[in-house]
Amino acid sequence: MIHDIDLDHVAVASERAGDAFPRYTGDLAGRWLGGGATVGYSSFQVEYANGVRVEVLEPHLVEQNDFLRRFLDRNGPGPHHITYKVVDILAALAEVEGAGYRPVNVDVSHPYWKEAFIHPKDGRGVLVQLAQAAGGGGDEWRSPVPDDLARPRTDEPATLVHVGHAVRRLDDGLRLFRLLGGAETGAGEGEDHRWVDLGWPGSGVVRLLAPKGDGPIGEWVGEAAGRVHHLLFDTADPQRVGDAEPVGDGRYEIRPEVNLGTRLLLDEKIPVSAGR
Predict the structure, then answer these.
(1) Conformational region of residue 213, where left means phi above 0, alpha means psi within -120 to 50, and beta covers everything else
(2) DSSP H helical segments within the chain, as ranges?
(3) Which candidate in 17, 105, 143, 263 could, as Cys together with 58 as Cys, close a disulfide (CB 3.0–4.6 Å)?
(4) Which tens digits make up the pLDDT trace of 14-24?
């Protein structure tokens, strides 16, 4: 297991990052953290009530690095990676390699930002980024709040409860995310799947969903080793969020085809004033 590791954010890819403002800063009232551009992509990040973040990526300077352009051409918009922050990336990479995973695109040359990735073939269908960050550098990358940022629909930000990741084999998913420091916090069954929650110190949670027989989860995974299925948010008045459709038990869904390729599930958040 990797020690001193935390789930930092989940990233989604889009042709134009600003197209996500109405959803992530408007409907869900995410707090703007910053944005900027580098070779291959530009991005912005927003933070939710429990400190978990969403990052939205768009292609930039693709003639110098076309990784995101190729991803969009191959898959269309949607979930791209999950980022974990570590205190010691060299120690983390030793654990990764010792467990039989092969890190790719390792770059530990920068004093303020060191990173490596676990390829989706090893990451059970999702790209995993490991990053070690140090203060004092990179501030020039951050941008001011953009003029077209969507106004929050509510004064209370949503809570990003978990990242729902569907895997063909539950044991394979557990092996990876336990290596990444996840501690089991719950388990259960739905009509067509089993699930296990794994949590990290900073409130981030990954819910692994494994199909049992035929059903929507099995259809979503298909022949892949895994595939991000949804992001679950607690938010005020989910029925009033644009494109939200009721799916039972007080839950609402925003289908991926109307949300830049990423499925959202919404539960109603009890206001702080109500005593939660």
Answers:
(1) left
(2) 21, 67-75, 89-98, 170-179, 216-221
(3) 17
(4) 999 999 999 99
DSSP string, 134-180: -TTS-GGG--PPPTTPPPPSSSS--EEEEEEEEES-HHHHHHHHHHT
Tell me: the pLDDT tens digits for 224-248? 999 999 999 999 999 999 999 999 9
Distance CA 45, CA 31 (A): 8
Neighbours of 15 (CB within 10 A): 12
- pLDDT tens for 167-204 read 999 999 999 999 999 999 999 999 999 999 999 999 99
For the cut 70, the answer to whether the pLDDT of residue 50 exceeds it is yes
Q: What is the pTM of this model?
A: 0.94
| Whole-Å CA distances, 163 to 98, 99, 117, 208, 239 | 26, 23, 18, 8, 21
Identify the structural domains of the chain with CATH numbers, from first to last.
Answer: 5-141 (3.10.180.10), 159-274 (3.10.180.10)
